[in-house]
Amino acid sequence: MIRARSRPSLFSPVRWRLAAACRLFVLALVLTAACGFSPAAAQEALRPLVNALGTGGFPERAEAVKALAATGDPKVPEILTYLNDGELYAPKAGGAVYRIASGNTVIDPLTGAPVEGVAAGGLQKIRLNNTLRGAITTAMSQLTLLSPDRDKRFSAAQDILKSADPAQLALVDGALAQEKDNAIKGLLGAARAVMVLRSDHSVEEKKAAIETVAARGNRDALTILTTALAGAPADLVPVIEGKIEGIERQMALWDVAQNIWYGLSLGSVLLLAAIGLAITFGVMGVINMAHGEMVMLGAYTTYVVQQAVATYAPALSTYGLAIAVPTAFLVTGLIGVAIERGIIRFLYGRPLETLLATWGLSLILQQAIRSIFGPTNRQVDNPPWMSGTVDVGGLAVTWNRLWIIVFSIAVFFALLTLLKRSRLGLQMRAVTQNRRMASSMGIRTPYVDALTFGLGSGIAGMAGVALSQIDNVSPNLGQNYIIDSFMVVVFGGVGNLWGTLVGALSLGIANKFLEPYAGAVLGKILILVLIILFIQRRPRGLFALKGRAIEQ
Amino acid sequence: MITEFLLSRHEKKTLVVAALILLAAILVPLANLLAPEGSLLHVPDHLVPLMGKYLCYALLALALDLVWGYCGILSLGHGAFFALGGYAMGMYLMRQIGPRGVYANPLLPDFMVFLNWKELPWYWTGFNHFWFAGLMVLLVPGLLAFVFGWFAFRSRVTGVYLSIITQAMTYALLLAFFRNEMGFGGNNGLTDFKDILGANIQAPETRATLFAMTALLLALSLILSSAIVRSKYGKVLIGVRDAESRTRFLGYRVENMKLFIFTVSAMMAGIAGALYVPQVGIINPGEFAPANSIEVVIWTAVGGRGTLIGPIIGAILVNFGKTIFTAAFPEFWLFALGALFIATTLFLPKGIVGTVMQGSKARAERQKAVAAEKGRTAAQPSQGAAAHETQAAE
After folding, report:
1. Residue A193: how many CB atoms within 10 A of its CB?
2. Which GO molecular function entries does the Swiss-Prot or TrEMBL record give (chain A) (predicted)?
3. What are phi and psi of B129, to 5 degrees?
4. DSSP-assigned beta bridge partners for residue A123
5. Does the N-terminal or the C-terminal CB of chain A have fewer CB atoms within 10 Å?
6. Is-contact A418 A309, C-beta < 8 A?
7. What is the dihedral of CA B101, B107, B112, B115, to 10 degrees?
């Protein structure tokens, strides 16, 4: 019992997976071989190669595997799978190779027919080592290059490109001639070019190969060219150097783009977290320290919605997130209105006290969530349409980040429309600019305040839905964003949503640009110091409201 | 002249509290060291550093009250000054360990050996002297406050904006001190202290002395603060708090006044930190956490801001409550603290001391009014006396 349990640790899991993969290939190939060509003759041609597997040391056997693969025979993957699974045996002295699958029946690996007159006891298992296993994997991927399944060919082509052993040149040429798919053709072409570079070919051929490799323009291409540079003939050196320089320049550009992308992504998260804060601060002059906890509540609402959907309506699970957005808005919005009516309205005109009271509230909310859901992280799943990556040139764009950017921009413009076009927005702007005057004009400022606070909290809740996709849903979720959100509001200035947008995006991008040079932590410190210095220059932020109303 | 400045014009209650603290400075060590174990008067060993810790917090709250209660600057970064003072003292204590560390390196503290550092960073030089460390306890927080305040007050950053950037300051320092490369022990901070000025830091005598020193410095700071706020300068400071623009238009250099009190307060916080570290035995970046600084604000608010003695009482009360609460119901401490924040701001805006003072003041006025009423009915008052009485009633 104990032995059985300990087996997986003794045998490397990689090997098991490899074996499973091989079996799959075999299945596929056996099926396609049905429409294949005259089996018997081809099999007999294979036999000396198969028998070579049983002779010599590991290097010789690796050679034998390569030779087998080079034939491209559909029977080969099957043989290699047997070898990989340790089912192939040979007499100690060498000679014919047999397969012993189960029990003690000795069978011919090529035909599958039982062999008479050979005792299983006299045979020895053909042992494997890592080199040999590597050779088998490469051989397998070579063979799958000819598979009718496009995805298989694609991944095989990627493998080939990675290893790019010049010995496989003929095989790649063969595959290239048959290949119809352009993406795979590109990969194979690149692989071929790398192989050409690594072997003895004429300068012209190598030049063309350099072009092909350089066209890929990624880090791998750079490594290939750099290694090629070492052993290159004199007249190729300037060509390669030029290409390397070109790739490096291109990659530097992509790096900048990548940083901007990360920065935009971080900025959109900050925007979502800060925008609600900006509204409440702008309209009411209230710094809501519990804002981060509203974000956290939004994230937990997402979790609860996800659980509820999974229990009561599993069919809708893909849309759980879409359901969570309005739910979180409503839940946190209502809590926000309750907070405003219950606490904040008694503290108007005393912003510092409001700050303290909301801080106290944030402690209570955190502890409440910790008591209900426990201190550990909760798992919120990514729906399928939000997971995965898409490559845009040299950029790796993750879907969830992309959706969050889209979402935050949508929220931003929805809010902007609300403020500019709706009656409530008009009233909110009026109260922001001059509370007493607005009040004199008949605007019920307490009502506007409550709705504003609810709106700000609701947006924080929606931010929580978005954050649940990229961050840990824990009771401390809000704490991680609150100081950054303050920085955005202070930097952007209040009473102006555009200020928040510019503030969030520029902080996000600046953060990501500083990170490579200064490290994540130091970069953040630098940003904080820069903001503290910036506040000296513009105490009211980048987009300060102008007018008397501000100096109260 | 300085003594005269320090001893004149104090309110009675300030003097009473200062005297009580001094009394504690004498009695607690005596009760700890001399009273036999098991007697009613005996203070157990573990209580002495705990009470010392409360007094350090009280000093920190007093420092905050100077800027918040009297100048209207709500600093959410006073924990940073406290921690910096603590680190300065911690560095001295680290150097005193000498070759007794785990790696037995005579020069480098353990964490530097662990990081494979070969020599002491330049900013650690001098910290083997107590006087130098003591100077740094004052200078480092003072300098930071001066530079920070110089920029902030000159550009007239006020109100919540100022609070937020002080919070950003302590947050930035928190992140910075977490870094191992800073050379302050990173995440673990400074700990495993052995002795202070040659005396074993764990010994009851040392702890009692530390307690006495803390109480003494707290009493001194209280007297100093009282002297400051009751001087002419202090009166202008209150003017700045209540009507900053008006004070400025009257011709006072508001930014300089703020800068002075901010720096003094930061130094006081630094002293509190320096006294805290040897009694608690560790200083780590957690002290920079923004939440800590906000907690100091609530001690001050509970006790009553702008009263000087209020924050001392508040800090001791809240921390005593915290000790009890976290031991009995650790789950509920945050609920209690949060509720305390809300309740204080909603129902007790003047704090305990402020409310009591208001009550006694109102009572005194009522009594005076009653007395005046009696006087008026008893005899027909002259014009002058009536004027005098109305003035008194006001």
Report:
1. 26
2. transmembrane transporter activity
3. -95, 135
4. A91
5. N
6. no
7. -100
The answer to whether A478 and A293 are in contact (CB under 8 A) is yes
Q: How many domains does chain B have?
A: 1
Judged by DSSP in three states, A106 sits in strand
Beta carbons of A336 and A454 less than 8 angstroms apart? yes
| CA–CA dist B127, B120 (Å, integer) | 11
The domain ranges of chain A are 11-137, 146-235, 254-550
What pLDDT sits at residue A271?
Answer: 92
Which chain A residues contact residue B301 at CB under 8 A?
356
At B72 the three-state DSSP class reads coil
CATH number of the domain within which B169 lies: 1.10.3470
Closest in B152, B158, B160 to A355, CB measured? B160
The ipTM estimated for the assembled molecules is: 0.85
For residues B80 and B166, what is the distance between their CA atoms, to the nearest angstrom? Answer: 9
* Pairwise CA distance, residues A373 & A314, whole Å: 22
Going from the C-alpha of A335 to that of each of A302, A341, A380, A462, the distances in angstroms are 16, 10, 22, 13
Q: How far does B157 lie from chain A, in Å, by closest CA?
A: 5
Tell me, rounded to whole angstroms, the distance of Cα A21 from its chain centroid: 24
Q: B86 is written with which tokens?
A: 């603590």
**To the nearest whole angstrom, how far is the Cα of B144 from the nearest Cα of chain A?**
13
Residue B347 tokens, joined:
């129902």
| Assigned domain for B217 exists | yes
Q: In this structure, are residues A138 and A163 in contact, taking their beta carbons and an 8 Å threshold?
A: yes
Cα(B323)–Cα(B168) distance, integer angstroms: 29
Of A356, A371, A537, the CB nearest to B301: A356
Is B73 contained in some domain?
yes
List pLDDT tens digits, range B171-185.
999 999 998 888 898
Reported in sequence order, the residue ranges of A62-148 that DSSP labels E, i.e. its strands, are 88-91, 98-100, 106-107, 123-125
- Encoded tokens for A445: 């400022």
Residue of B242 and A316 predicted with greater confidence: B242
Residue B372 has what pLDDT?
A: 85
Measure CB to CB from residue B155 to each of A351, A522, A536 and give the nearest one: A536
Least-confidence region, from A149-163, A508-522, B260-274: A149-163
Instruction: Provide, as residue numbers in chain A, all residues whose Cβ is less than 8 Å from the Cβ of B168.
Output: 483, 486-487, 528, 531-532
Residue of A nearest to B173 (CA): A525
Contact residues for A359 (Cβ-Cβ < 8 A; gap 6+): A289, A290, B294, B341
Note whether residue B355 is domain-resident.
Answer: no
Determine the residue among A479, A532, A537 to mutate to test chain B binding: the one whose Cβ has the most chain B Cβ atoms within 10 Å: A532
| Exposure string for B90-105, b = 16+ CB within 10 A, e = fewer | bbbbbbbbeeebeeee
User: Is residue A228 within 8 Å of residue A240, measured between CB atoms?
Assistant: yes
Q: How far is CA B130 from the centre of its chain?
A: 22
* Owning domain of residue B183: 2-349
Q: Is residue B237 one of the residues assigned to a domain?
A: yes
- Is the CB of residue A266 less than 8 Å from the CB of residue A488? no
Do the Cβ atoms of B339 and A360 come within 8 Å? yes
| pLDDT band at residue A461 using 50, 70 and 90 as cut-offs | very high
pLDDT tens readout for residues A165-202: 776 777 777 777 777 777 777 777 777 777 777 777 77
Q: Do the Cβ atoms of A536 and B151 come within 8 Å?
A: yes
Q: Which of B74, B154, B171 sits opposite A352 (nearest CB)?
A: B74
Which residue in the block uniquely carries the two structure tokens 């990229």? Answer: A470
> How far does B112 lie from chain A, in Å, by closest CA?
20
Fold of the domain built from segment(s) A254-550: ABC transporter involved in vitamin B12 uptake, BtuC (1.10.3470)
The four Cα atoms B184, B186, B189, B191 give a dihedral, to 10 degrees, of -80
C-alpha A267, offset from chain centre: 18
pLDDT of residue A41: 65
